[in-house]
């Protein structure tokens, strides 16, 4: 079983940009979402994935991700997720032995920037970069599925 353990934070400065990669534009939508599970489709250029996630229990959730054809993902986003789509650019930023993913959102919540870090265990210790602020891991308003429901989101691509 695949398990995801991650923490999420608000980004409070542009300090992350100095170490970031070139970024990747993502368009993602939710085929289904309730408190117990979500089914997400994500498209980035010619790559696409279908992901099934369980509801969050603390920092841990089950996650199953599968590569799918980009054309199928585009069709699912347009036909099945039309009002539940998030546009963002994701940057990977190394810091103190971890790789942080920084999401810069587009559309209705342009200006929102979140940083996530995956962990090996719930009690793993690591240093926070000085460009992260308050933790929002357990705040349901900052889940991508909740952000998508704020729509009309415009896509970043």
Automatic annotation (TrEMBL):
Supply the InterPro entries for this chain.
CYTH-like_dom_sf (IPR033469), CYTH_domain (IPR023577), NeuTTM/CthTTM-like (IPR012042)
State the SMART domains in the record: CYTH
CYTH domain location is 2-149
Catalytic residue list: 30 (proton acceptor)
Pfam family name, one: CYTH
Q: Which superkingdom? A: Bacteria
Query: What Gene3D superfamilies does this protein's entry cite?
Result: Hypothetical Protein Pfu-838710-001
Name under which the protein is recorded: Adenylate cyclase
Q: What is the organism field in this record?
A: Sphingobium chlorophenolicum L-1
Q: What is the lineage of its organism?
A: Bacteria, Pseudomonadati, Pseudomonadota, Alphaproteobacteria, Sphingomonadales
């Amino acid at each position: 079983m695949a398990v995801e353990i991650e923490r999420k934070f608000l980004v409070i400065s542009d300090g992350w940009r100095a170490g970031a990669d070139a970024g990747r534009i993502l368009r993602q939508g939710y085929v289904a979402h309730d408190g117990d599970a979500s089914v997400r489709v994500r498209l980035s250029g010619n790559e696409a994935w279908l992901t099934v996630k369980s509801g969050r229990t603390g920092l841990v959730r089950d996650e199953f991700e599968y590569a799918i054809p980009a054309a199928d993902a585009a069709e699912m986003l347009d036909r099945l997720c039309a009002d539940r789509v998030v546009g963002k650019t994701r940057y990977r930023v190394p810091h103190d032995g971890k790789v942080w993913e920084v999401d810069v959102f587009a559309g209705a919540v342009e200006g929102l920037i979140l940083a996530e870090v995956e962990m090996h265990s719930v009690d793993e210790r690591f240093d926070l970069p000085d460009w992260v602020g308050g933790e929002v891991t357990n705040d349901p308003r900052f889940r991508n599925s909740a952000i998508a429901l704020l729509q009309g989101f415009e896509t970043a691509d």
